[in-house]
Design brief:
By secondary structure, the protein is mainly β. It is built from one helix and eleven strands, in the order βββββββαββββ. The relative contact order is 0.19.
């Protein structure tokens, strides 16, 4: 089957590092199993972010309204507020997916041990978007990002890259 003649090579999708972020998490709230799956809410307890163009703190507000699907994969639904080092507020939202091999399930669901598992052994990806009224960071309103997540002691961390 031939490719559609309208398709052309526009080059690879490229990214550049935006920042690294750590989010401290409060103990999870297990909402229970509903019609879409098992809902767990992870409230953000603070944190930090730092990169070449911006840095600051993750405010202790927002969190992840995670949905564990019937197949064991987790759909993440996160809303956070960032405050830059110079006081600007940035709303950060992202969806994504987290999946892991069944043999790591016990270790990864235990808050005391999950940070010891090598992130190469599970898939944790996100698609951050931003909103701000701060003139210095208005460029964030128009970018799409990708994030690679991993567990750290007391929370989660992400490497966030801007799609160029």
């Amino acid at each position: 089957m031939a490719l559609d003649p309208r398709i052309r090579d526009i080059g690879p999708v490229e990214t550049t590092r935006l920042f690294d972020m750590v989010v401290d998490l409060a103990p999870p709230l297990h909402v229970g199993v509903g019609p879409l799956g098992r809902r767990i809410v992870f409230h953000a307890g603070g944190g930090s972010f730092e990169g070449p163009l911006l840095r600051g703190e993750v405010l202790a507000s927002g969190g992840d309204w995670a949905l564990v699907r019937a197949d064991g994969s987790t759909a993440i639904d996160v809303r956070l507020t960032l405050r830059t080092h110079d006081g600007a507020l940035i709303s950060m939202t992202y969806g994504g997916r987290y999946t892991s091999p069944a043999e790591l399930s016990t270790q990864l669901t235990d808050r005391r041990t999950r940070h010891t598992v090598d992130p190469k052994n599970y898939y944790f990806r996100s698609n951050p978007l931003f909103e701000t009224g701060a003139a210095a960071y208005a460029w964030l309103n128009d970018v799409v990002c990708v994030g690679s997540g991993y567990f750290v002691e007391g929370g989660i961390a992400y490497r966030v890259a801007k799609v160029v």
